[in-house]
Amino acid sequence: MTQYMILIYEDEASYENASPELLGEVMQAHNDFSAQVEQHGAKIVGGEALQPTGTATSLRAGSDVTDGPFVETKEALGGFYVIDAPDLDTALAVAKLCPARFGGVEVRPVMTFD
Hints:
Strands 2-5-1-6 form a 4-stranded antiparallel β-sheet. A two-stranded antiparallel ribbon has the order 3-4. The chain has 114 residues and is α+β, with helices and mostly antiparallel strands. The chain contains 3 helices and 6 strands; from the N terminus they run E-H-H-E-E-E-E-H-E.
């Protein structure tokens, strides 16, 4: 099996004043997603939600350290899953199920070193 990261990019502003009901719906969607992954022949091996970009500290080559993300974008990395899947087609099928109500997801194979 190969590991793939499903990177979740969403508009953070959509969550700033989110109601408890909306947050509950989002959490339920992620619980439903997790329950469906193995039906596609894949397995979640890790994943986390991330704090908002305002809490980020960025480092550039050399010694520059800045608060916040590198660029201003509408959609920011908000969380990720790492899955084991037999192939890219399976990883894409799983990623299509991944909740990203206010954005989208990116699928990338994890690099392996022998």
